[in-house]
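Final report, closing paragraph on structural work. Over the funding period we assembled a curated collection of sequence-structure pairs, and we close with a single example.
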Amino acid sequence: MHAIEVHAVSKSYRISHERQTRLVERMLSLFLEYRQEVLTRMKVLAVAYMPYKGHVHRIWTDLAQPWVVGYHRNVFVHEFWRYVDIDLAEKARRLR
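Its predicted structure, as stored:
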């Protein structure tokens, strides 16, 4: 190939490459917009059908009698009653 032909091919290749790059950028932009719409819709549906609503209670209202032994609230164990015992002698003494 002569220098002029190489220059023409390289110019045409550069133009094609720029077009392809713009096309990919545009497709990526459209994809990201679509993806965001889908994620937003999923979030709305998740909140609508979620059995638990995320919220916080700042006050704990645990009540225990003085004769309950071994009670300790654990936020990860909901069946705490398995680990609780009653001191019958203490109960009898306090209820007199």
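The longest helix spans residues 3-49. The chain has two domains: 1-55, 56-96. We thank the funder for supporting this effort.
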